[in-house]
Amino acid sequence: MSVDGHADRPVEVAIIGSGPAGLTAAIYAARANLSPVVLEGELSSTSNQPGGQLMLTTDVENYPGFPEGVMGPELMQRFRDQAVRFGAQVHTAKASRVDFSTQPYGIWIGGPDASEPTLRAWSVIVSTGAQSLMLGLDREIEMVGHGLSTCATCDGFFFRDQHIAVIGGGDSAMEESTFLTRFASKVTVIHRRDALRASKIMEQRAFDNERIEFMWNTVVEEYLGESALTGLRIRNVDTGETSTLGVTGCFIAIGHRPNTDLFAGQLEMKENGYLVTQPDSTKTAVEGVFACGDVQDDYYRQAVTAAGSGCMAAIEAERYLESRHPR
């Protein structure tokens, strides 16, 4: 789908990224007759793929309105269809460069070295999301949703009375492990070092939990099982000894990385790379540029909170544009 012509005729709202945040923003902006243009990402991209992280999720049971649950890709397709129904123009393309120094703002697709942007917009909503850091093992993406997960809040319920492994040694891993003991019969924390990186309070909370055990100086080398996870091939980094750990669930908790490289030098970021927005708002420090979803949320990281912030971004963009060009 071409976006030709928008460099000469700036659009009211450009939305960079999809997922629950971007597509909710598109729905609200389209219903406000702002004719948003959405750059949803590329199918070949791991950092900004159409539909966001839910495209790698199977059953979603905690999104309101779906009492029987819904498949992640199906949920995102419904979001997309609804946005298109109200007039959003969705392009399967990835932004390669932005210029927020002057309005209308410039957005490049494809080669970032081109002198003129592909698209210009009076306001921009950034919703490029974040990605869970993974181990990079064979069949990793294939196993997500089949015993492998990166979100205890999302998927812990599916592992009631099962033995679960959690990979990691920071606060996130301890928080996930403690949460999972609400469901699991046993949680084994696998850490590549002999001491945790977690804060003392989180560490002690995990040590005090009788359902949590630790495997130190250990790394995972292979996911076992055909259609679903049945165990892990693990290796002791000191002795080199390999063994099998029989688990039916495994949660990778080694951190998240926001997809913000595109905005380096353009938007303010926290030390961890997440975009900074004003309190109780999606406004960035750049007038007319808003950020929503996991690209600015390093705490909740849920589909429903991302969708809520997408709604906020669209409403704030609409009010911003109205203040500039009353209709």
UniProtKB/TrEMBL annotation:
InterPro entries: FAD/NAD-bd_sf, FAD/NAD-binding_dom, Ferredoxin-NADP_redctase_2, Pyr_nucl-diS_OxRdtase_2_AS, Thioredox_Rdtase
All residue ranges annotated as the FAD/NAD(P)-binding domain in the record: 12-310
GO biological process: removal of superoxide radicals
EC main group: oxidoreductase
Keyword NADP applies: yes
GO terms under cellular component: cytoplasm
This enzyme's EC code(s): 1.8.1.9
Cofactors (names): FAD
Entry keywords, A to Z: Disulfide bond, FAD, Flavoprotein, NADP, Oxidoreductase, Redox-active center
Catalytic activity: [thioredoxin]-dithiol + NADP(+) = [thioredoxin]-disulfide + NADPH + H(+)
Annotated Pfam families: Pyr_redox_2 (PF07992)
Entries under SUPFAM superfamilies matching the protein: FAD/NAD(P)-binding domain (SSF51905)
Cofactor binding notes: Binds 1 FAD per subunit.
GO MF annotation list: thioredoxin-disulfide reductase (NADPH) activity
Subunit structure: Homodimer.
Assigned protein family: Belongs to the class-II pyridine nucleotide-disulfide oxidoreductase family.
Listed NCBIfam families: TRX_reduct
Protein name in the entry: Thioredoxin reductase
Protein source organism: Geodia barretti
